[in-house]
Amino acid sequence: MDTTATIRPAKPGDTEAIMNLTDAIALFEGEELEELGNMLAGYFDGSLGEEHSWIVCEDDGVVGVAYFAPEQYAYGTWNLYLIAVHPKHQGKGNGTAMLRQVEQTLFSKGERLLLVETSGLPNFELTRKFYRKQGYEEEARIREFYKAGDDKIIFRKALVTPLS
């Protein structure tokens, strides 16, 4: 990772930078961006619950963001709902550093699994390759989930060694 970058919990003052970052990666559109803004507001006002976590990667401004939360009806299972790095700062280890921070945070709390979902479209191949490189295994594929021709792919990583 770039030695000047730091990872820290998101603060209310980061909202605009996070929204600009997610707009720059062009992953979300209109209503989705609005919902993301509502989720951030809910995190900062405490209405999402204390277990929800947003972190940012900062290098002379916010260059990356990650959001993770527990799976509601499972014990020790968490979802990484968002991880993104500004296009100008990709390929420098920032995404890997944020992912490791998420994993270490959950591991230290004794959590069991981290799930990540992504699209099956060809333009998400680098994303899928990234997760595989980080030790995630493809656990499920739901065909045509997002829309016709766009599968939902779920990756899984065990955070603790299972008991023998």
UniProtKB/TrEMBL annotation:
Superkingdom to which the source organism belongs: Bacteria
SUPFAM superfamilies in the record: Acyl-CoA N-acyltransferases (Nat)
Database matches in InterPro entries: Acyl_CoA_acyltransferase, GNAT_dom
Organism, scientific name: Plectonema cf. radiosum LEGE 06105
Protein name: GNAT family N-acetyltransferase
Signal sequence interval, chain numbering: none
GO molecular function: acyltransferase activity, transferring groups other than amino-acyl groups
Domain N-acetyltransferase per the UniProt entry, residue ranges: 5-160
